[in-house]
Amino acid sequence: xxxSIQNEINRIVNQLKKEQSPDGSWRYxxxxxxxxxxxxxxxxxTLEINDEDLIKALVERIESKQQGNGAWKLFDDEGEGNxxxxxxxxxxxxxSGYRKKNDKNMQAAKRRILEMGGxxxxxxxxxxxxxxxxxxPWPKFFPIPVEIVLLPPSFPINFWxxxxxxxxxLTPIFILADNKYRIKTRRSPDLSDLxxxxxxxxxxxxxxxxxxxxxxxxxxxxxxxIGLPEYIHTTAIHHAKxxxxxxxxxxxxxxxxxxxxxxxxxxxxxxGYPKSHPIIIKAINGxxxxxxxxxxxxxxxxxxxxxxxxxxxxxALQEAGMSSTDPVVEKANLYLFSRQHYQYGDWAxxxxxxxxxxxxxxxxxxxxxxxxxxxxxxxxxxxxxxKEPLFRQAWDRGINWLFSMQNDDGGYGAFEKNVNKRIxxxxxxxxxxxxxxDPSTADLTGRTLEFFGNFTNLSKQHLAIQRGVEWLLNxxxxxxxxxxxxxxxxxxxxxxxxxxxxxVGISPKHPAIQKAVKWLLNIQNNDGGWGExxxxxxxxxxxxxxxxxxxxxxxxLDALIAVFDEPIPEIQAGVQFILxxxxxxxxTTSYPTGQGMAGGFYIHYHSYQYIFPLLTLxxxxxxxxxxxx
Length: 629
Fold this sequence. Notes:
Layout: H1 2-18, E1 30-31, H2 35-46, H3 52-64, H4 83-96, H5 104-115, H6 124-132, H7 164-179, H8 212-226, H9 230-245, H10 258-270, H11 278-288, E2 291-294, E3 297-300, H12 306-319, H13 327-338, H14 347-350, H15 371-381, H16 389-404, H17 432-435, H18 442-455, H19 463-474, H20 490-503, H21 511-522, E4 530-532, H22 535-539, E5 544-549, H23 550-563, H24 569-581, E6 594-597, E7 601-605, H25 608-624
Antiparallel strand pairs: 1-7, 2-3, 4-5, 6-7
Helix pairs in contact: 1-25, 2-3, 2-4, 3-4, 4-5, 7-9, 7-10, 10-11, 12-13, 12-15, 12-25, 15-16, 15-18, 18-19, 18-20, 20-23, 23-24, 23-25
């Protein structure tokens, strides 16, 4: 097996070396289904930008993802289809002008939409898109008035209590919902035949009407603090607009996210900006720059993942034995050095005493760093710290920022500090738990501990480490697993928690570790691998996929390798699965292993098929080399 492992390590390393971009980064796709492709068509048609080559190509990609029953899915085992994805795809295909309602595939899609409850059952954000493009009625009431942007941080619920993703997406919606903006063109299709019921307008937004008292509470709070004369309302609109404009990145996108940029464009239109305004044109071109090629089709990424890919690949190559002075690693680390943040972002609202120093996710992100990318980038550059003064400065800035981001509960969230008010889960906004809060999570806490334990000289008794371990011990599931917020799901969280705790000195014999190991061994598949369904994050419980994936197997194996001093048979079986499946191409290869919002947003990271098997095999080889001499 020794030579097979080395051969596979060599194969992956050579593949990664070939696919490095000239700037030193890796630009593997950040694939998220067809929603962004559909919204791009809808945006271009609404603005009457007739980029026919792009529209035709996106139509072909969307159509290539349609299931035999007419539906579209977010993941393979989703059942009979996803109503939101199907409506979005159907709408975009019609709006493109290249597909008609009487086409066979379109008729099949319509049937499935009606069978799944009709257009009324789509996700909240799809309803907003449909409303602002004239296909769906706006609600009479919106649960959060725009004046919330003026409330001081001392108010029990205020604008800065929302997570940065919540602020980015809701701010343009505040403006759009305030004036119930709608825009149609001569090419707009008629989707009225997708409604199953003919209820009153408010009934279409049942989820918004759960608690009118919340709206009253917000308005009373605003009135008591700042009053409600008309000029206050006008000031709030102005502040919301300025919030967006002041967070536009160099490529013209708002926070480098597709959804927030899409909504910002419509919000600016609703405020009187012409379609040809330079800000709008630049934003559209920024979204176009998100295009990548997948299997011969263009895909509009939700964002780019260049920093994330590059930091993980650089670290994995070095774990596989490549020197930090190798030109490939050197170029990668110089790229990462150039992407460290120097500007303050929203994170400073809750963390005002730290200097900037983190890393963000995308290629052009300059103000929205996150804990995950920061630890990943620091891992990548750690061997240069004692040799290169500039990298030492980058390291110190990154470490200081990372320390400052630990939540008061001892865990780590993604983008901000202490942004986890439980009351926000009860705001009648669909997906509020994922959209509006940024809590401590097992995956981020575990990986931060792993970084502290393996890449710094911190004492294992350091308070930051002790508090992180305590958070993990307090949040282990009864079955021994941990829930991973940004991946799928319990295998992901358990891998991060186990490797993190062991790296900071927790004994493999600790009851929590043993409980996790027992769970991992119990869910191993007969073929030696592991696999978890995206349904786990919807069910809030582990749901087996019924098949093994390369990435889930790598995560589970890496956790077990960290625990066992000798390669037990289950580890050997897992390694064999990786070696036998390395170049396999089937539905498990593209199965999403990342998530953004339960039930609505799943990610297939194209880089993961190389990164995590390479890391796991390298860790196996290093730890168990004595058993293969």
